[in-house]
Structures are given as structure tokens and as C-alpha cells.
UniProtKB/TrEMBL annotation:
Forms part of the ribosomal stalk, playing a central role in the interaction of the ribosome with GTP-bound translation factors. The keyword Ribosomal protein applies. Belongs to the universal ribosomal protein uL10 family. The gene is rplJ. This is Large ribosomal subunit protein uL10. It comes from Gemmata algarum. It holds the Pfam family Ribosomal_L10. Signal peptide: none annotated. GO terms for cellular component: ribosome.
Length: 183
């Protein structure tokens, strides 16, 4: 590959992956055309894009974006997109299971690594990363929990006292109503 073509390819990759913080690296082992089509189609339905990229280009482009990526050896399929890191991880996991329904069949694609917001993790961990909305919900719940506990502590004894007073009132009302009926 000439220097000019390498530079054009790098510029294209820089433009494509500008701002991408979540992605999965896969290694195609015995990927035939039918399996490749199935993989790409299942990922496309979930808005995940796939591109075969040279390892040295992956390292160079992502190091320029501030992420250290170890690609290992062998060819690399780069998957990115989806609504969140969790959606990306679950989509890729589902696609890999679709390619290998029987565990006795040799792997066609092997997971190299997953990256969520610049952090290296496995594909299983990537599928468990909370989405932005889930993370916000957890923070809001953590903030509101002490206030809810305090409100329950303040309201609890008052409602118990009100229940006791109501029971006493009802007993007195029954006791007063019985002699009036007899008289």
C-alpha cells in the first residue's frame, strides 16, 4: 500500500471514528460469505456498523483520540454504533450466538475486546454497562432515598397515632350508642 493510499485510508478512518467512544473488536476466524452476511445483517438491524480495519490503523486512529487499544494479531472487525454501549454489547453478543448456535461447532468469529467510553472490558461486561438513562435513574434514586426514608419516619408514628385515636373513638361511639338504644 502506497503512502498516499495509507494516508487517505487513515483520514477516512479518522473522520468515521471521530467521537466514537464505544466499540467492539472481533477477530474473524472461519468467516465465510454466508456467515459474514448473517453477522452484518443482524448488526445492521440494531444500527451497529461493522468495518474490517488494519490493526495498525486501529491503534493509530484511536490513540489519536486518546484511547489505547490492543488489537492483538490477526484481522480485526470493528463494530460501533447502537444507542449505547449496552445496546452495542448485547447486539454483538446476539449476533455471535446467531453464528454459533451449537457450542460444538468451531467459532467463526472470536471476541478480541470491548471498549466503553475509553475503558477496556470484555463483551459480557460491555453488555452490562448501564445506559445513560439507567445511570441517571440510579443517581436520582440514591439522592431521593434518604428523603423518602425521612418522610416515612415522620409520617409513620403520626399515622399510627391517628389509627389508635380512631379506634378509641369508634369504641366510645359503640359504647354510647348501645345504652341510648336500650333507654
Amino acid at each position: 500500500m502506497s503512502k498516499k493510499i495509507k494516508e487517505l485510508e487513515l483520514n477516512s478512518l479518522r473522520k468515521t471514528f471521530q467521537g466514537v467512544r464505544d466499540f467492539v473488536l472481533l477477530e474473524p476466524l472461519k468467516l465465510d460469505s454466508a456467515a459474514d452476511y448473517t453477522l452484518r445483517k443482524s448488526l445492521r438491524e440494531k444500527k451497529v456498523r461493522v468495518k474490517m480495519v488494519k490493526n495498525s490503523f486501529v491503534r493509530k486512529v484511536f490513540s489519536e483520540n486518546g484511547m489505547k487499544v490492543e488489537t492483538g494479531s490477526g484481522p480485526t472487525l470493528l463494530c460501533w454504533g447502537g444507542d449505547s454501549a449496552k445496546a452495542l454489547g448485547t447486539a454483538v453478543e446476539a449476533a455471535l450466538k446467531l453464528l454459533r448456535p451449537d457450542p460444538k461447532v468451531p467459532e467463526k468469529v472470536k471476541e478480541k475486546t470491548g471498549i466503553a467510553d475509553g475503558e477496556i472490558m470484555t463483551l459480557a461486561q460491555l453488555a452490562k454497562v448501564p445506559t445513560k438513562q439507567e445511570a441517571i435513574g440510579e443517581v436520582v434514586a440514591a439522592i431521593l432515598a434518604p428523603g423518602a426514608d425521612l418522610a416515612a419516619a415522620l409520617a409513620g408514628p403520626g399515622s399510627q397515632l391517628a389509627g389508635i385515636l380512631k379506634a378509641i373513638e369508634e369504641k366510645q361511639g359503640e359504647g354510647a350508642a348501645a345504652p341510648a338504644a336500650a333507654g
